[in-house]
Amino acid sequence: MAGSGRTALLEDLRDQVARIERRPLAPGRATAIPFGLPALDDALHEGGIARGALHEIAGSGPDTEHGAAAALLAASVLAHAAGPVLWVSPYFDLFAPALAEVGLGPDRVLHVEASRNVLAAMEEGLRHPGLAGVVGEVPGRLSLTASRRLQLAAEGTGAVAFAIRRSARHDDPALAEPSAAVTRWRVASLPSAPPLPWSPETPGLGRARWRLELLRARGGEPRSWIVECPDAQGRLALAADLADRPPAEGQRHRAAG
Amino acid sequence: MLPVEAPLVTRAHDGRRLVVAAANRAAQALGLRPGMPLAHAQAMVPGLEAAAADPEGDADALADLAAWCLRYSPLTAPDPPDGLWIDVTGCAHLHGGEETMLKDLVGRLIRSGIAARAAIADTPGAAWAMARHVGEAISVVPPAGQADGIALLSVAALRLPSETVAGLRRLGLDLVGQLVSTPRGPLARRFGAEALRRLDQALGYAPEPITPVVPPEAVQHSLAFPEPLLTAEALRFAIDRLAEAVCVGLERAGLGARHLDLLFERVDDATKILRAGMARPTRDPRHLARLLGERLEEVDPGFGVAAMRLVVTLAEPLAPTQATTSLGTPEAPEVDIAPLVDRLAARFGAGRVFRVVPVESDVPERSARRAPPFADLGRVAWPPGLRRPVRLIAPPQPVQVLSVLPDQPPAAFTWRRVRHRVRRADGPERIAGEWWRRDGERRAVRDYWAVENEEGRRFWLYRRGDGADPATGDLAWFLHGIF
Q1: Which CATH superfamily is domain B220-317 in?
Q2: What is the predicted ipTM?
Q3: Which residues in chain B have Cβ-Cβ distances shorter than 8 Å to A97?
Q4: How far is the CA of A219 from the CAs of A14, A20, A148, A182, B142, in angstroms?
Q5: What letter would DSSP give residue B386?
Q6: What digits encode the pLDDT tens for the residues B431-442?
Q7: Domain ranges of chain A
Q8: Tens digits of per-residue pLDDT, B251-288?
């Protein structure tokens, strides 16, 4: 156990940094919502999606416009947090049954159609105590100042803030500009595996498959994983036929995809 | 009860003889007019029913109607004998815009048997003129457009005594527009200041305050200030005091406020209002004060606010608050989102803050409905395990599909000029039209396919018709959602 002393010291330092960086969270609340997948949770400093922080999710390629996978990812994370969720859209194009399918039922979600004031509505929600999270569908640019405001508002109440970055432009460079978000994710669709692995010719659709990229994380390295999209409990799974291989497989797969 | 269609007039004494005071539609169709001698009318229509006019009853009914109109605005007043004032400043957007609000108002009145015409303009005078002298059921004069709006109306539209109107006509001044371009000095000498005052009121050069009715039983509190208030800080302080006082009144009555009107009486006799609505009844003074205080910038204090009044225009029973803490677990404490809902609704409009409730319908676009934030979800739930897209495209967009066989999934489809080859597909999920909702759906059928293209993106397509019976649909394909 040579490393345990060093680990404890590191943990202590991290705690101190966390205390300096942010106000205390509401008592009794965990500091993060875990994915329930060690491969992902271990890569994140807080062991999951940190509460009291802003996280960005964007689609990839043509899905930059619709952010469908991004919305599903945010919903599946919030399905595991208790409390109401505020979902802010410029104009409402969500189909709520899909959110219910990953565990975020309609009883928990309050929707706001905020036109050009998505950020203001998000901030309003983040300043209200007790919400599990606020999801905002942010079209186009998100300035450093605006993201900083959201981050501060989230720190104050401990709610999770998701900014779903959408743009009519595929892979819009504006989405790569720096922001105050603690993590930045990109979700891309990948061809899914046959529904019955032993019988590839059987028609039908299995679970959708994503490449989940962690582009930026405070205290973490950029990583990417191949995952199967959230199930009825809102849980991601490592792609079955790739789960036992080392992470480098994912990179190779990207080259092929 | 008299049959509705029978001609009916009311009679009144004009000092010399009995005259017709009012005539219903059937009587007017027979040529009877208010003001004609009753004997003359009875000669024209033998057996005419003539009920005694009841001016006090009419005035009471008009006052009741003015109170009913508080649903549209906190500033309403009767304008005897047959008019109502509604100050809709800042209220129209709560009712879907000015025109929609007027349609709603006139529609509701017609349904309750009251023939009405309504107009909106910048000034009470112009609205009066438009409502009475334009043949339309509703008219809306655009902002600052009152001079053009009433220019072609008769001078009688200016609420002038009949002798003045006759005198103006003798001079060849028939229209308001002519009066506007006539030198004012001679007009004032000949017809008195009244004619010019009415003209200025209609055009907005002279103020015309409306004395509002207040629901008598409403919980309210007012503050008058020895020195007019000007700064936002001072007004906020007054709002805090008013909110506290009103909440004490609510507590005593066992009520919570749902609608609030804050009236600012300015030193120049104009009254400005702020309306606020709450999703749930509340009597938390801090919440009410914050809700109103956040919107203070919408109110122009002019040269100062001399008095303020906070009126609870809609209250609902609210049980006494319990002082103990809730028993919620630390992980899931009871969260009251009502204050958040109220602030969002005040900012974005009540219709744009909502939850989505399941509806028992197989047709996707009907299966989820917007409902108020605290609507009961009911016992309906979406069936689990259905494959449903995250984004629903409304209306569905036509796509060109290459399909091998009617019962096979599409091989490829083209949407927005991009061709997608279908790699995998799931379906068809047949959804039949709901003939009990619309006749045209009696035989309509949609066959839905969830398809995945070569990149792994998934789309929700449907074909109109079952592929066998042409009556079920024309086999056109649509994109209805994106997974």
Answers
A1: DNA polymerase, Y-family, little finger domain (3.30.1490.100)
A2: 0.84
A3: 358, 367-368, 382, 386, 388
A4: 10, 15, 18, 9, 58
A5: -
A6: 988 877 777 777
A7: 30-191+206-256
A8: 888 889 988 889 998 888 788 888 888 888 899 999 99
